[in-house]
Amino acid sequence: MEPSPLTQQARPEVFQQKIVELYESLFKDEDDHDKSEGFWREFFLLKPDKATLHKILDNLSPDDLLHLQTRQLFSRAVACIKSGNAPADAHALDTITAFLASVLPKKYTNPSSDIISVLAGLDQVDAVFTDFVAALDVTIRTGRNLDIRQKAIEAALAVVSGAYQTSLLSYFTHRDLFPSLMKFIQDSDTTARAFEPFTLLGLLANYNKFEFQNPYRLRLDDFVNEGTIQKIIRSVGNTCTDARGKYVAIQEDLPEGWSIGTTLNMIGLGVIAPGAKTTTPAIDPELAKEMFAKLPGCEAAVLLATYDFAHANKLFCFNFVSLPAEKGLEAPIGSFLSVTSYFLQHAHSSFRTTLYSHLNLLILRLLIEDQVLCKRICSDESKMSVRLCRQRSPYLPLVRGERMLAASILDTMIDGINHNLRRRLDVDFYILCVGIILRLISHLSRSRTRLNYHWSELFRSLLSLVRFLTTYTSDLKNLSHIETLLDDLVNLIALSLSAGEAFLPSPAAYDDLFYKLVEMGEVLVKFRDNYELGKRPSSSIETLISVTTHYKQLLADGAQGRKGKHLTSVQVAGVIKQGYETLSIQAKEGLDGWEKYREADKRVFLKKMSRAAVGDVKTLITGE
User: What DSSP character marks residue 14?
Assistant: First the structure.
């Protein structure tokens, strides 16, 4: 006898969402026939469970995927997106984003052909992918609201980052998404919404850009919508502030000003201080070191697009330097320079940190090589307060309040030089730091702009670098591009000697440079001999040595005139001042000259940088 349909069924131990049942049904090995229209209608009407979908797909091998109904899922999702019917189109976009984020990064035997096979099949890929990119383009441009348009951008990020090394990206160069992405930014209601489209633009603009004329790069050249540019810049500024916050969360480095509370804390009575609050406990140094090595966060990928826009577009550069702060926030250029100082103090922590440090230095170089912007950076127009990293000693003097942007840039470069001295020296990093200082001092000396700055710290750092290079010559002599660093460093010191009166704020600052150089007399001779700089016509080492020789003789004569053998520091300073009368600095011509940036010279670096940014976008999409 059959059981009555009214009989109570046993309750399942765990209730399972309907959409999860459909996922499991779709990805069963034995189920190889096409799913019905009813299945797909229900599939896209139900809200996706992206976490479960990721979990199911992550457990499948690349070979498994080649034998499942992935093509049907992809083509049905594309059709849903094209139709634009709510809520199925939004669910299809969420599903396709999670699907691509899990499927594309897998290690396939033949990446391009296997991915094509998983998504569409060789015979259908052209039609399916053309439709897919077109559907994304239309949704980004004219979707019914900003949320659905943003979902389309996230789907594009998933496929572009996941398939970056495959031929599938050619569909994004055939169909230009630039106008749609810029329209989305223009229409956006919050600064945060500009982050994803601009990051996507950075990946697209770097795709094979040295192999063919990339259309996105050409679009960046011609873009003149200032309102959209300013939205992008504010988004970059906010992202830099967020990225810096992750460093500060590991180690708070903001020096406290004097107060009753700090004084009571010093004598152990902080509990009774007015407004006393508990401070974040210090993290174990080894653990902090591991945490710093994982920074910057993956949001730093937006800096690749920032570099490309800065390289291509003068209007972007002008706005980047001049856009003022919004109420309660930092100016975007201040946030950018601030996070750069954190990158540079930790540049050696990991390969990623090194890459992003280089990238931000290139952006600064591009800004400073524009003479209109450099003039602004070195003027009172640029005055602002910039929070610079103070997480590692030696510390530069703390300057509170506003000052010219040039002073903050010089501090950042000095920190970069002081905190990354290694026997396996990152020569290109040091060339960038020294080169940026050279370009600033070149402008200051030509324009006769006296910058109020702690120049003593700058010259101490440059001469310490000379001492380091001299001490570890055997480790450093054969490093790639070391000759460029040696020439730039020596020529920068020689320029400071010959043109110091034009940009140093006082005679005392000029005397201090000579004093420091005279102290380095023997080291400079050894430096010249170790690297055979005397044979290099491009080096100004003989200019420096002639100055130290001149003063060495004067000091020896001064000592003979006294009963004691040694002069005091005050007496040495006096000799230096007197020595100007008989000193002749034979400086080379063109010390204040520099070569304009050529992107082709950084081809290898930019390819590595693109790969790192792609990896960060993958992490962003999966939310890991």
Answer: S
